[in-house]
Amino acid sequence: MINDSKNHLNEINETYFQHMAVAFKIGITMLFTGIICLIHGLIPGLFKKTAGNQIIKMHEIVSRN
């Protein structure tokens, strides 16, 4: 597992802490987006574009890395 982790970090050219920061950012964004989607499901007039914009933002982050 350690070798797999090292290989992954080398493949994406990030240090452990850089990778952790990106992964945490994506994870927190996903949690936030999930809550926004739940609120939107209850009250469709709220957050009409927020979830879609967040998904686009996450895709851009993941695509860069």
Describe this structure in words.
The chain is an all-alpha fold and 65 residues long. It is 82% helix and 0% strand. The protein has one domain (17-64). It has helices at 2-12, 16-42, 50-64. It is elongated and about 45 Å long. The model has no long low-confidence stretch (mean pLDDT 91).
Provide a quick synopsis of the model.
The chain is mainly α and 65 residues long. It has helices at residues 2-12, 16-42, 50-64.
Helix share, percent: over 70%
**How would a crystallographer describe the biggest sheet?**
none
Give the topology string: H per helix, E per strand: HHH
Number of strands: 0
Name the overall outline: elongated
- Total of DSSP H or I helical runs spanning 4+ residues: 3
**Into which percentage range does the β-strand content fall?**
under 5%
Please state the CA-atom Rg, rounded to the nearest Å: 15 Å
Mean pLDDT: 91
Number of domains: 1
Q: What's the N-to-C terminus distance?
A: 21 Å
Weakly predicted, low-confidence segments: none
Secondary structure class reads mainly alpha
Topology:
Layout: H1 2-12, H2 16-42, H3 50-64
Helix pairs in contact: 2-3
Keywords:
single chain, 65 residues, mainly alpha, 3 helices, 0% strand
